């Protein structure tokens, strides 16, 4: 990728964001300034949808669903539209990535792959699935025919976070649209711009008006109105546990809509002394937590290291960490970009202060970086001596702060790995095949990486256990969230 092209795109002014309702771009009840985490300056504004705006968007999605303009389109027609959308995402990939980075601060090298690249692949994957999934015929008695149909649920409300808006947005929007639903999307207020651009591309690709609506604005106003809407049949969400709890309450207060929640993690990365390559493990442990400034739901944020190699491993990890380039996320060489917002940065520093108060020891980092830029940066931070009762062990920071804890043997490693309310991801480093499988079976999390950390693609599910949530994003399993089963029982 060419730095000059990125610089050129990054210099372009950003138009004010509007709401997309019934295929039209409209003003909202208010507007919110968008500050760039790169320099703290205002980039543009986005519309803040009030309850009436959200009600119109949901009614539009409901009407579109009921009249069948998309829900009853031939599968091959929906497939062609979603492939066209993937083509457009690829065509505008750099523009989408740069816009997203200016808004949320992810380093561009990562954003290019994880954002438009992954979103286009996700749209293609579900476009291809549309005409390859059949209903079923049940093995009933011969005088009966039992047909099992799969139908779209209706209107899907999607609330997504700011760390990977296009990637996570696509995980929800693509399977929802592929199965014939209408969607009302609420992006995070600090990362709406690339999703607004995606919505424009969806219209261009031929998604009919009303089938995909976007309402931007604050979570407590716009998001709450969406989650309370009786026009929404299913709510899909990625974000914090606190908001996930609220969504369940809104569901109970309104129409008992199903809620599928992906609520982050505190994922253990477990290094045994018999790992095939401890140096590789140390480098991977650094990227597992510090890329995108730790703002990754599957980040390996708890490092558990066998005591016999702990000190040497931490020394190698610290060396790798100090080499990571923190800086302007629009530069291709940057490995650790900006923290998304000032409040997020302050929260990160609060975690470090609490960790040292509770007896943890800072090996490197711990402080705000590059303050003169006006942007929100933090030095990657390693804290050793973190115990299960410490706040840094229990709570998700969602920032570049790694908690390190030693263990004596496999039994203790497993106990420590599972000593968390979360269960999203994990890593295990060992050359012992049996031990690797025992750990995979023993760790309660949606994914366990072995001798690597963080790899995945659209073919495998991401689904939380425990308080990391429920329901799968990605893979064909995700389709279950967006479809209802219906039985036809026919007497012959
Ligand atoms: P984070 O801590 O990662 O910002 P949040 O859960 O606060 O996580 O935000 C994730 C998404 O949830 C954002 O789009 C945000 O606007 C939305 N959100 C926040 N609070 C609410 C709420 N009370 N109701 C609905 N959506 C909300």
What can you tell me about this protein's structure?
This protein has helices spanning 3-11, 51-67, 75-91, 93-104, 108-129, 165-178, 193-205, 219-228, 241-253, 278-290, 310-322, 342-357, 391-394, 410-418, 433-442, and strands at residues 19-21, 24-26, 30-35, 42-48, 136-138, 144-152, 155-159, 182-186, 212-214, 234-238, 258-262, 268-271, 302-306, 361-364, 368-369, 377-378, 381-384, 401-407, 422-423, 425-429, 447-450, 462-463, 465-466, 472-473, 483-491. By secondary structure, it is of the alpha/beta class. The protein has 2 domains: 3-263 and 469-491, Aldehyde Dehydrogenase, Chain A, domain 1; 268-456, Aldehyde Dehydrogenase, Chain A, domain 2 (3-Layer(aba) Sandwich). Strand 10, helix 9 and strand 11 (258-262) form a beta-alpha-beta unit. The mean pLDDT is 98. The structure holds adenosine-5'-diphosphate. Adenosine-5'-diphosphate (ADP) is lined by residues 159-161, 186, 188-189, 219-220, 223-224, 227, 239-240, 243, 246. Adenosine-5'-diphosphate is lined by residues 159-161, 186, 188-189, 219-220, 223-224, 227, 239-240, 243, 246.
Per the CATH scheme, the topology name of the largest domain is Aldehyde Dehydrogenase, Chain A, domain 1
Mean of pLDDT: 98
- Strand adjacency order, main sheet: 14-17-18-13-12-20-21
Specify the CATH architecture of the largest domain.
Answer: 3-Layer(aba) Sandwich
Q: What class do helices, strands and sheet pairing give?
A: alpha/beta
Taken from the alpha-carbon principal axes, the silhouette is globular
Q: How many β-strand stretches? A: 25
Uncertain regions: pLDDT < 50 for 5+ in a row? none
Helix content: 25-40%
Question: What is the total domain count?
Answer: 2
